[in-house]
């Protein structure tokens, strides 16, 4: 069988997959591919599925299948899978890094030093210790972030529509997360329920000076409403790895104050690429029976 690796994976993955069939990353072989393996970059839409008539299995190395037209794939008899267990630590560490960078002004301090400025008085820091972190979504990544936040002396509360107990956070209503949190971190999938859930109305319920961290999906927030809240001072900072459109060309966030941006790096650790490889190999073993 032909296995098409459409996106970048660990360098050893093609060799590891060779036991299951012919491995290629040549997109002109799409028509021959029985297995299509993607990360976030390749969007598997109807046109792509139509161009892959032999395809029987699509694996997304990552959490969620929102970059794949799952219904259409299924209608063509194609199974769709992802590797949700692999990336939690990598994303939780990035969320934590974004959270701790904001009150410590790490980026502004570094930039100003290189501009020859000494902003010792201007850059007053605040501590995470004693603050409340509110999680929206406490699945795998939210859980790992909660553990790290508690180690820094934060209180952790969480709202999750589908989770009824947690060992690491007090579960509260969504409005309580908005009202009580000094930091809010988003960890839901992108669904019809979560699309645009952080908007002017929900921001109005948050504390003045709240910090928001988004490592889930850009479309969970309304970027213009975030930019307005940053401009008015209602929100003290927005740190994000994900955008309405990626790259975020023309986004109002690019001109708003106190925005910290990374280019969708959540899953991009060396260790995670190896874990993704392990998860993909395990899935192909099962699929091929080898
Ligand atoms: P998960 O499935 O373990 O957890 C998601 C949680 O969200 C679940 O507990 C679920 O009950 C909850 N949820 C669903 N709908 C909700 C709603 N309407 N309101 C409140 N909670 C709701 O997933 P995870 O592994 O923790 O990943 C979370 C998300 O992170 C993924 O769906 C993906 O979009 C994103 N992600 C981003 C990167 C990145 O590179 N930045 C990498 C991996 C995952």
Automatic annotation (TrEMBL):
CDD domains per the UniProt record, alphabetical: PGDH_4
Domain D-isomer specific 2-hydroxyacid dehydrogenase catalytic intervals: 28-287
PANTHER family for the chain: FORMATE DEHYDROGENASE 1
Family: Belongs to the D-isomer specific 2-hydroxyacid dehydrogenase family.
All residue ranges annotated as the D-isomer specific 2-hydroxyacid dehydrogenase NAD-binding domain in the record: 96-266
UniProt keyword Signal, yes or no: no
Keywords: NAD, Oxidoreductase
Lyase recorded as keyword: no
Domain of life: Bacteria
Molecular function as annotated in GO: NAD binding; oxidoreductase activity, acting on the CH-OH group of donors, NAD or NADP as acceptor
Transmembrane segments: none
Taxonomic source organism: uncultured spirochete
Official protein name in the record: D-isomer specific 2-hydroxyacid dehydrogenase NAD-binding protein
Gene3D superfamilies: NAD(P)-binding Rossmann-like Domain
């Amino acid at each position: 069988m032909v296995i098409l690796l459409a996106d970048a994976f660990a360098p050893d993955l093609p060799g590891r997959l060779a036991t299951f069939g012919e491995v290629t990353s040549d997109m002109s072989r799409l028509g021959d591919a029985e297995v299509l393996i993607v990360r976030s970059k390749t969007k598997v839409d109807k046109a792509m599925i139509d161009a892959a008539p032999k395809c029987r299995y699509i694996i997304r190395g990552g959490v969620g299948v929102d970059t794949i037209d799952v219904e259409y794939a299924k209608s063509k008899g194609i199974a769709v899978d992802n590797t949700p267990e692999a990336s939690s630590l990598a994303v939780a560490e990035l969320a934590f890094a974004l959270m701790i960078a904001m009150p410590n002004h790490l980026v502004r301090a570094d930039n100003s030093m290189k501009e020859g400025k000494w902003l010792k008085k201007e850059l007053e820091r605040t501590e995470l210790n004693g603050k409340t972190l509110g999680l929206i979504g406490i699945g795998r990544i939210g859980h790992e972030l909660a553990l790290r936040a508690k180690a820094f002396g934060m209180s952790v509360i969480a709202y999750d529509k589908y989770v009824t107990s947690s060992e690491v956070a007090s579960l509260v209503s969504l409005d309580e997360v908005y009202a009580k949190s000094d930091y809010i971190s988003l960890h839901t999938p992108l669904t019809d329920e979560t699309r645009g859930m952080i908007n002017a109305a929900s921001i109005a319920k948050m504390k003045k000076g709240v910090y928001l961290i988004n490592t889930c999906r850009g479309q969970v927030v309304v970027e213009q409403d975030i930019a307005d809240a940053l401009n008015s001072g209602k929100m003290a900072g927005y740190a994000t790895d994900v955008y309405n459109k990626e790259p975020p060309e023309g986004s109002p966030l690019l001109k708003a104050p106190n925005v910290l941006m990374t280019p969708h790096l959540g899953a991009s650790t060396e260790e995670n690429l190896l874990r993704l490889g392990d998860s993909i190999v395990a899935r192909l073993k099962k699929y091929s029976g080898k």
